[in-house]
Amino acid sequence: MNINLEIIKIAPRTSDSQIDYNTLIFRLELKKKIDLETSKDLWVFLKALIDGGALKIMMDFRNVDYIDSAGIGVLINAAKLARNNKGDIALANVSNDVKSIFKIINLQNFIKTYNSDVEAENSFRYIT
């Protein structure tokens, strides 16, 4: 699975020796489809990020045009893991086709989806 990662600083660093994960948003740009084949790599990547200390993960779905149950399972498990660590994930730029899949299973009630990167970034204001 091809994933682009961008780290967005939302506050200046307080020290050079320690990373303050409360001041960072990890923005993942996902590609084309999240299915049984690609979801395994996505899970390993997300688990490593969260276990490594990432609290705020924004997943950009602008290029995703398909997701299956394996991909949805990864999103749910990643959200649970992030929340257990006092973090969260947000989905941005979700296409109408993918939103319709989420709506059938009420995923938007468990994982917030936003129409833009800015809206998703702003949703992390209250996570400390």
Task: Describe what you observe in this structure.
The protein has 128 residues and is of the alpha/beta class. Helices cover 38% and strands 24% of the residues. It is built from four helices and seven strands; from the N terminus they run βββαββαβαβα. The termini are far apart. 31% of the residues are buried.
Keywords:
128 residues; alpha/beta; Transcription Regulator spoIIAA; 5-stranded mixed beta sheet; 24% strand; globular
Task: Output the helix-strand order.
Answer: EEEHEEHEHEH
Task: Show unreliable segments.
Answer: none
What is the overall shape?
globular
Largest beta-sheet characterization: 5 strands, mixed
Q: How many structural domains are formed by the residues?
A: 1
Secondary-structure class: alpha/beta
Helix amount: 25-40%
Q: Bin the strand percentage.
A: 15-25%
CATH topology: Transcription Regulator spoIIAA
Biggest β-sheet: strands ordered side by side in the sheet? 1-2-4-6-7
Helix/strand layout:
Blueprint: E1 4-9, E2 24-29, E3 32-34, H1 36-51, E4 56-60, E5 64-67, H2 69-84, E6 88-92, H3 96-104, E7 113-114, H4 117-123
Parallel strand pairs: 2-4, 3-5, 4-6, 6-7
Antiparallel strand pairs: 1-2
Offer a quick outline of the entry.
The protein has 128 residues and is α/β, with parallel strands linked by helices. Helices cover 38% and strands 24% of the residues. The protein is built from four helices and seven strands; from the N terminus they run E-E-E-H-E-E-H-E-H-E-H.
